[in-house]
Each structure stands twice: as structure tokens, then as C-alpha cells.
Amino acid sequence: MEKFNEQQFLEWYDQYVGKIYRYIYFRVGAAEAAQDLTSEVFLKSWQYLNSKGVNNPRAFFYQVARNLITDFYRQKDKLPISLEEIADKTFADNFADKKQEPGHSVAIALEMASIKKALQKLGGDYQEIIIWRYLDELEIKEIAEILGKREGAVRTLLSRALAELRKVLE
Amino acid sequence: MNEQELINRIQLLKQVSPKEDWVISTRAKLAFRMEMERKKNLLNHDLFAFKELFSFLSISQPKLSFNTVYGVIIAFGLILGGGAVTTLAAIQSSPGSPLYPVKLSIEKARLIASLSEESKIQVQAEIADKRLQELSVVVASQESAEQKAEKVTQVVDNIQEQLASASNQLPKVEPQKAVAAAKAVSEKANQFSKALATAKESLPSNIKPELDTKIAEVAETAQQANMKALETMIANQNSAEVKKEDIIARLNETIAKTQEQVDAREKKISEEISFADKLPIRAVLINQTEQSRELLEKAKQAVLANDLTGALQFVKAVKAIEAGAEKMVKNADKAISDEAAKIQNQNATSSEAVNSAK
Hints:
The complex is a heterodimer. Chain A is built from 8 helices and no strands. By secondary structure, chain A is an all-alpha fold. Chain A has 3 domains: 79 residues, Orthogonal Bundle (Rna Polymerase Sigma Factor, Chain: A); 31 residues, no CATH class; 49 residues, Arc Repressor Mutant, subunit A (Orthogonal Bundle). In chain A, helix 1 crosses helix 6. The longest helix of chain A has 23 residues. Chain A starts with 5 loop residues before the first helix and ends with a helix. Chain B is built from 13 helices and no strands. Chain B folds into 3 domains: 75 residues, no CATH class; 124 residues, Four Helix Bundle (Hemerythrin (Met), subunit A); 116 residues. Chain B is mainly alpha-helical. Classes of the chains: A mainly alpha, B mainly alpha.
């Protein structure tokens, strides 16, 4: 089990913050909520792991993120407006500004918005397996570790998730 | 839509990333929280000792005894206050301070959080300015040579990291912005070289031999950064951002500096290893010097013929020869003694052979 200190933990933060944020963002659908939950992932992980060791920090962060997302959805009904409403309003705007050519940027932003929408129509299990495998590029073995499943079961789940996403997109 | 097309569409979402300022502030909060935890642990330990020390109070006056709840409140007050002060102190800290590594770490987070290569180079330029300022403060300080050397080492390590990283990012910058980025990198590399030479002069030569080596390494990194910058400018010579005269001036300057290096090495060969003038290593070094001179001449001709890419290739070839020769000169002592021993052995064997023949 790998022992770590504060410096090491901050290096893990630098390495994984973007991916954990993205994973949470697509699961909860809103930037502000994703920021809050991502901060919490690292704070809680530090509190839990402090003075202990960890074999696979990345898998551990994803596990904490999953638990926090579950808690978040338990409280979702308390929100004044729906997350989808918040997300759809800002998502395309955020990406439309970033590129040089306006036509190209709008096309990409719209394409991204459509995939994001399709992804959010999937069930939680399908969403996260697609994010982990194709956005965060986790190995099947690593996903199996996070989910506590066999690699074969993860492959089956992934293939079903892709088929479902294709169906939604088409 | 086949599977690969679907995956490609999904991967468009990789562009989603958190905001730079949020990443930095969250990192800072995390670092403070860690420090708070550490202080809390220390304080708990101290409070326990303090409580033990005044345990007689709890026997005679139970109402005045330490209450755990009060203890925790005081601890948190101190920790929270201390955390904020420490943060500010880290940002303001200078080399030698225990908080200086925290400052470097915050800067690193800013770099990581920069989204484009261009903004990374911009952040690096800001960091470089800070290092230059720190270096000048250390050099001008009235501290002992040992203290100065310690601090200079800390700054120099970071300078090398910044220079190497900035020049590695140059090829990734968008073509329209490449020239401006290259100029910025080159300017910083030159400023660093000057500042390091001043720092070296301010320290006695025997104070820290490894620091000398480090400074030489950084000077080398600065040269490489300059070459990368020049390469970027030549690659974009047709862009409106760059003037051909500027590139030619820089190329001529680089050729002149390289010429100085070749001269210096030649002098070193004649002074330091002249006694070994019959050894093969000297012949190799002299041959390399001749090659370097020839290539530099070709570089000058190429500049005159407006073939800037060609000129750069010649200079790069000379740099490669000089880097190899420099290593050979460094190892020359050992090589010379080995060769001398070999010659002696050969002579001894020949004498024995002659004697036995007689």
C-alpha cells in the first residue's frame, strides 16, 4: 500500500482534478454543483486517507465521487430549478466562445451539447462506465476495481451502455 | 454510426474541464486544510501536555479545569487564523523560507490549470520574473556565503524547470502566436543567463561545487531554450509577426556566441591538456574544433545567402559537436591518465621485447 504525504496528495490533486470534475459534471449536469462535489471529493479523501496508505488513488477518488453523487441525488428534489435546465442554458455558451472560427465553434458546441444530453438520458451505471472508459481512459481492470465487478461483467456493461447511447443519439 | 464514430463523438466531451481559477483556489484550500489538520494534531498534543501540567487545578478547582469543548474551539480559532496567515505568508515567501516550497507548489498549480500552451508560457513568464527578482534579492543580501548558496540553489532548481518546460511548450503553440511566445522565451533565457552569471560571481568559487555545476546546467538549458526560440522564429519567418532582420541579428549573435565557445574550448585544450599532445584524445578534440569552425563559416555564408534554416542547421550541428567535446574535455584527465598508462605499458613491453631479443 502506497504511503503518501501532503505533497504527494497535492500532486494527485493536480493529476486527477480535471478528470474527477468532468466525471461529476456529466453525472450531475451542472458546473457549480460539480465544483462543490469535486472539492469535497479531495477534502474527504484527504481526511480519510491521512496517515493511511492507498493502492490506487485514482480508483479511490472515483469511489468517493460516486458516493457523493449518490448523496447529491438524494437531495436533488430540494433544488429550486432542475439541473438539466441550468446545464443546457450554459453548456453550449461555454464552448461556443473558445474557438477561433465562429461557425466551427458553434457546430462543435452543438455536437457536444447533443452528446451530453444523450449521455444524461442514460442510467447512472451506463453514464459512468462511458465516462470512465472513453473520457477518462480508465482500463477495464480499473473500472472493475471501482465497481467491485469482474472484468467480463464490465465489458458487457460497457457494450450495453454504448448500444444504449447509440440508440438515444439516433 | 459505427462504434469508432460513436467513441469519437463521445471524446469531444474531453474538452470539458474545470475553470482555471477554481482549480487554483481549490488547491489552495486543500493545502490550507492539510496544514490545519497538521496544526490541529500538534495543538492537540500540546493541549494534552498543558492539561497534564495544570492537572492540579482540576483537583482543587474543578470548575476552572480544561473543558474539551473549549479546547477544541480555541484550537480551531488558532488553526483558522493561522491557516489564512500562512497562506499569505506562503505567497509572499522568499527562498530559504519553510513556506517557499508551498509558493512553488501554488505556482505549479497555476501552470497545470492553464488551458492553452500560450497561457502556460504567459504564466511561466510571470514566474520567471519572480525568480529573477528573488535571485537579485539573494545576491544583494548581506547573508553569509553558505546561506546565499543555499537560497541560490533553491531558485536555480526552479529556473531550470521553468526554462525546460517553456521551451518544450514552444512547438505546441499555435503558429500565429508562436513568434511572440518564442521571443518571450528567448528574452527570459537571456535574462536568466545574465542573472546566474551575477549570482555565480557573488559567491566564492569553493563554496558549493555542485552549485557551480547546477548553474552551468541551467546556462545550458537557457541556451537550448534560446535555440528552440530561434528555431520557432525561423519556422515562422514568413509570418507578419517577425522581421527577417531580427532573425538575422539573433542568428549572428548565436553564431558569435558559439564561436566564443569554440575559442574557449580550444584555449582549454592547449592549456590544460597540452602535455598530452601525443595522445589520440587531443587529436580528436582538435579535429572537432576544426569541424566546428568550418561549420560556423558555412552558417555565416548561409546567413549571407538568406538561407536562415540552413544557417540554423549548421549552428545546431556545431552545438552538438561542442556538447560532445565539452564532455570529453571534462573526462580528459581520466582519459589522459589511462592513455598515458597505456603508452607507458606499451613502451615497457617494447623495451622488454628488445632486451629479450638482445
